[in-house]
Amino acid sequence: MAAARLSSIASHLTASAPKGLLAGEVAIITGAAQGIGRATAILFAAEGAKVVVADLDAAKAEAVVQEIKKAGGTAIAVGGDVTAADYPKKLIGATIEAFGSLNHIINNAGFTFDKMLHTMSDETFELMLKVHNTAPFRIIREAAPYLRAKDPAVISTNRSIVNVSSTSGLHGNVGQANYAVAKAGVVGLTKTISKEWGAFNVRANTVAFGWILTRLTAAKDSDNSIEIDGKKIALGIPGRGNGKANEVTAAPDIPLGRPGTAEEGAKAILFLASPLASYISGHTLEVTGGRGI
């Protein structure tokens, strides 16, 4: 399936980028073992990037790497918890050791931990800040020596940071005070990077996703969970059908009439990382199918 997808993508490459929009560039993608992250890793590889598949689940990350390699792409896996203090050094070090340079960081790793505000513990609130704010900040800071380049030859290359946010961070959402605060913080972090690193020709943008079909928007049940520090956290939305997100088709509040797919989310990230967005920085791109306009 991956090979067919890469072939389909390759057939649509523009004449200006016959080897791919990211040919020869190096991209780190966190949370890349499944969902939007996995789709982004596969798409970036199809567009010629050397991909670093970073994820908490090392085995699944390696499976994505093998999928990319079988399709003719280049990738490595770096397993580990993005919130661990030593992970940024491990991630950036492995990237430079394998590929010698770095062009893009896609901070996609994250999850939800929903509670109504009046019943939410400090731990539940602060965990969202840790994974969505502190972790990306540390990874970006660790990469600074490779992105804040002074060499004109490096400055002229395509380099970017894309931080993943959510419409919850832009508009708030019931039961997501922690997630909404964290995702709003992502926007502030992105704008600051764009102002501080613009002089080095590093662009920083945010993608704010609406309803995309992933495990975070599937039904909330015992099989849909993530384990953090030995504690199982249920993901998804209570009462949403049978837990199979890909069977959801009707969305009357979305002008396009349906939720988005992980592949469509990946394409938005690709656009912001690619030379097609060479004069876009500090922007928040809402990918919602028109929902909330």
Describe the protein's topology:
Layout: H1 2-10, E1 26-30, H2 35-46, E2 50-55, H3 58-70, E3 74-79, H4 87-99, E4 104-107, H5 122-147, H6 152-155, E5 159-166, H7 167-171, H8 177-197, E6 202-209, E7 225-228, E8 231-234, H9 262-273, E9 284-287
Features:
293 residues; quinone binding; alpha/beta; seven-stranded parallel sheet; two-stranded antiparallel sheet; 9 helices; oxidoreductase; Ketoreductase domain-containing protein; NAD(P)-bd_dom_sf; Rossmann fold; globular
Any overview of this molecule?
- This protein is of the alpha/beta class.
- The strands form 2 sheets. The protein has a 7-stranded parallel sheet, with helices on both faces.
- Helix 3 links the parallel strand 2 (50-55) and strand 3.
- It is built from 9 helices and 9 strands.
- The protein has a single domain (2-217, 261-287), classed as Rossmann fold, CATH 3.40.50.
- The longest helix is centred in the middle third of the chain and has 26 residues, at 122-147.
- The chain has helices at 2-10, 35-46, 58-70, 87-99, 122-147, 152-155, 167-171, 177-197, 262-273; strands at 26-30, 50-55, 74-79, 104-107, 159-166, 202-209, 225-228, 231-234, 284-287.
- 46% of the residues are buried.
